[in-house]
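Exercise 7. Predict the joint structure of the components listed below.
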Amino acid sequence: GAGVSQSPSNKVTEKGKDVELRCDPISGHTALYWYRQRLGQGLEFLIYFQGNSAPDKSGLPSDRFSAERTGESVSTLTIQRTQQEDSAVYLCASSSLYGQPQHFGDGTRLSIL
Amino acid sequence: DQQVKQNSPSLSVQEGRISILNCDYTNSMFDYFLWYKKYPAEGPTFLISISSIKDKNEDGRFTVFLNKSAKHLSLHIVPSQPGDSAVYFCAASANSGAGSYQLTFGKGTKLSVIP
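Solution:
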């Protein structure tokens, strides 16, 4: 597709369950970012992938959060043992080698009951 | 601590008038600034950007001004149109040296353009 694609668009799950979110970046974009936006807040950086380099995980809030990316394609963000404070919109963005601008998907709205 | 601040949560402007959205930052390492526009249930859409070596960048109805000494930037929309009604996010990045151009975002300003 032409833009960044994320799935699912909405996810409702019970506290304590694991969730997996998916991101398909724009074709040819080497950089991929995950952000989250909690209610009434700005976007918070989570993790960054660039090609085969080691990812920048400095924004991950706890060890329950992890992400993978295969080459320059799809990425998955996994949240284990979800907590209510994990409820947010999780946004993925991709960009060319030179970093900007980042182009965002429509996000996954995660609700933890 | 909030490194990028948008102190006005909302702004209302008459159609045809100028909209001015403001943003302040505290991190002097930021060297690239962007504005994104966001509609409900959609991801942010890139609008316009400016490098720290410039003080102005213009694209059609949108102009971004950067005042490095004041650590302040603003987005001007003229003339404002009802379709401009959205939440506008200011974002900034610093070249970390490791190549991670992560963005730091403000909390957004909701612009309402009244017909």
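Discussion. The first strand of chain B starts at residue 4 and ends at 5.
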